[in-house]
Amino acid sequence: QVQLAESGGGLVQAGGSLRLSCAASGRTLASGRTISTYDVSWFRQAPGKEREFVAGISWSGRDSRYADSVKGRFTISRDNAKNTVSLQLNTLKPEDTAVYYCAAGVMFGNSNWNTYSYWGQGTQVTVSS
Asked: Given the DSSP bridges, would you call strands 98-105 and 118-119 parallel, antiparallel or unpaired?
């Protein structure tokens, strides 16, 4: 079964950078559509906290949206030819430590995680002080 899969997480010192990637494990999701036809967002969840919206990008890549806490530090992008969506994390802070998830849906930039149809299993990002 086709799923979303995140990669690129790891341990980094404060001020460092990481690049996360989200890809579909097969050409199409269960709907028969490719990830390139979906809006995609990144969420994160720290221990004991709610899952929170980080960034979103429209299916065309033309529009993007960021949480205030990451604006100016994180950049979301996509390559529809490769069916991948990336999240560049710069100037990382200890409070960015969380499991990061990508999700595909049809409501661009929606911060309600319940509205997304497809999810990956997450990748751990740990920022040491």
From this structure: antiparallel
